[in-house]
Amino acid sequence: MKIIFPTLQNFFVAASDTARPVLSEVLNASFARLRLAKTSIEQKRVKSAMNLNRMARDVESSQPSLAAELRNFASR
Questions:
Q1: How far apart are CA 56 and CA 50, in angstroms?
Q2: What is the DSSP string of 50-62?
Q3: Model-level pTM?
Q4: Per-residue pLDDT in tens (0 to 9) along the chain, 76 residues
Q5: CA-based Rg of the chain, rounded to a whole angstrom?
């Protein structure tokens, strides 16, 4: 019994030393994808807000209440 535990400990230490660089690369790659997805979502929101503000400017003179609603949506 005394021989088994140190052997298993050495095995798991070696296995973790081997797997750590691989796992860190996988995790870094997945976090990078999440950051890209977040920035693309933010870019879409900004583009939508710009489009809503542009539409609000277009209808400002003929329909002021619609322009106010469009600006309200753009601010969210």
A1: 10
A2: HHHHHHHHHHTTT
A3: 0.53
A4: 566 667 777 777 887 777 777 777 777 777 777 777 778 888 888 889 999 999 999 999 999 999 999 999 998 8
A5: 28
